[in-house]
Predict the structure.
Amino acid sequence: MTKSKGLILGSLMSMAMGLFGHNALAQEAANTTALSNPKVLVAYYSWSGNTKEVANAIHKQVGGDLFEIQTEEAYPTDYDETTAQAKKEINEGFRPKLKGSVDNMAQYDVVFIGSPNWWGTIAPAVSSFIESYDLNGKTVIPFITHGGGGEQNTIRDMTAQCKGCNVKSDGWVGYGSRTFGVSGWLEDMGFPEK
Ligand SMILES: Cc1cc2nc3c(=O)[nH]c(=O)nc-3n(C[C@H](O)[C@H](O)[C@H](O)COP(=O)(O)O)c2cc1C
């Protein structure tokens, strides 16, 4: 830019500040930031660590707060015992009690919710989480990890359980702890790499 063009632009800008006032311009900037910078929570349950890895990859790109959903009573460490217990709980619609809670859920616009696929659906702890808060009106972005079965009924069931939420149907569905592709998926969801 030439010096004279810079001077003209500078004076136009100060005229605009004079016309609209600093407050109006600052307010406009704040509104734009609120829309393009939603307050984000990344919440996840993970029994063997895969969903946790995906949660960390999401959190790294989108920022915001990270919350691990944990049950008051831990599941067994043995795989067969856990699958047997999970099968029974899912069949009975059991909701385990959770340890800890999210501070001021009302502040979040977007909540990423992560779950392993357990018997074709979301883990009971994730159902407990969804039903513990008022998520009405929030955008919920599911992320699911699985052991070969894929999405099955996970996102469908999360959507049914999350009353009044805007649950995105094109959540992340990945095998195990795979994070390759998460960044591009996030970009498609409106969270490009910064
Ligand atoms: C109780 C239980 C039930 C599972 N059921 C399924 C299933 O129905 N379909 C599937 O693809 N994987 C199933 N898996 C495998 C997990 O979905 C997969 O390993 C997942 O990535 C584990 O996530 P995590 O490490 O965050 O717990 C099951 C695992 C467990 C422990």
Remarks:
- The longest strand covers residues 110-118.
- The radius of gyration is 22 Å.
